[in-house]
Design goal:
- The termini are far apart.
- Helices cover 21% and strands 37% of the residues.
- It has 280 residues and is an alpha+beta fold.
- Strand 3 and strand 4 form a beta hairpin.
- Strands 7, 8, 9, 10, 11 and 12 form a six-stranded antiparallel beta sheet that branches. A four-stranded antiparallel beta sheet has the order 1-2-5-6, with helices on one face.
């Protein structure tokens, strides 16, 4: 049985992030509320269907560390004149950090009875968009200063200091269990495996960042363990990315390509040559 529904209210929130030429970032937010019927009891008279009852605009300016440098808010449509003053008061948030604890810091600096509820509701989403907008800048920071604590550490399950992502990408901040994954092993065990399986031509190699190696084959078997960085190897149209601790197994004659990550790639590699084949 189909239930008939009558539209009553629509809220639209649009958020956009921008990089500025002065090194800062802007997040623009707009919230609009409209009714799908004519309101006759609206302050100051009536409000036609589709006419905004709320139209709030906010621009937040932050730096790459998440510090607010500017916050401008205005109410283009609102039910009461005092709503405009509530929007202006958000300028008090300049100087706060949008990192963990942002919502609490906002409440301490700006009370609910001094501000606009609808603009407050957008602030956390604006902070999220700000972090998404500065992703590439953060990546460059992490690459140039890998020991710097990531802004997003312990901000969600994916960025848990005990999770796989932090273990691989930011090992110095990993504080979880050190049990190897099923497809990983410690260095001593891997070296023993190389000897046991006849990979006697071994070395530690380092590859430059962002190197792309087109499709090719080897005339020897390759077994390697990743020490740092990452590589994506594509065989038969299937791509797999290998990170620290992972084992890379490429048999002789298999056509494959390699794409190395932005931090380069360090690995212990063993080669197993055919009998009588010279070691290169």
């Amino acid at each position: 049985m189909t239930v008939q529904r009558t539209p009553l209210h629509s809220r639209t929130i649009q958020l956009d992030g921008f990089a500025r030429d002065d090194g800062l970032f802007d997040v623009d937010a707009r919230l609009t509320d409209v009714k799908h019927y004519r309101m006759t009891n609206w302050p100051g008279g009536s409000l036609n269907a589709g006419e905004p009852m709320h139209d709030m605009h906010v621009t937040m300016t932050v730096d790459a560390d998440g510090i607010i440098h500017g916050l401008q808010a205005r109410a283009a449509a609102h039910p009461h004149q005092v709503c405009q003053q509530g929007a202006v008061n958000f300028s008090r948030l300049v100087g706060l950090s949008i990192r963990k604890g942002f919502t609490k810091a906002v409440a301490e600096r700006l009370g609910p009875d001094e501000s606009c509820t609808h603009i407050r509701e957008m602030l956390q989403q604006m902070a999220t968009v700000a972090f998404q907008s500065m992703r590439e800048a953060r990546h460059q920071t992490y690459s140039s200063a890998p020991q710097k604590k990531p802004v997003l550490l312990n901000s969600c399950i994916a960025w848990s200091s005990q999770g796989d992502w932090v273990k691989v990408r930011f090992p110095s901040f990993y504080d979880g269990p050190n049990t190897p994954a099923p497809d990983q092993m410690d260095r001593a065990s891997f070296e023993a495996r190389l000897k046991r399986e006849g990979y006697l031509d071994t070395e530690i190699k380092r590859i430059a960042p962002n190197l792309v190696v087109p499709e090719h084959t080897h005339d020897f078997d390759v077994l390697a363990q990743v020490s740092a960085g990452e590589v994506t190897i594509t065989c038969n149209g299937e791509a797999r990315t290998y990170r620290p601790g992972d084992i890379v197994d490429v048999p002789a004659g298999v056509l494959h390509s390699e794409v190395y990550g932005p931090e380069g790639y360090t690995f212990l590699v063993g080669r197993r040559h055919k009998a009588g084949q010279p070691v290169q």
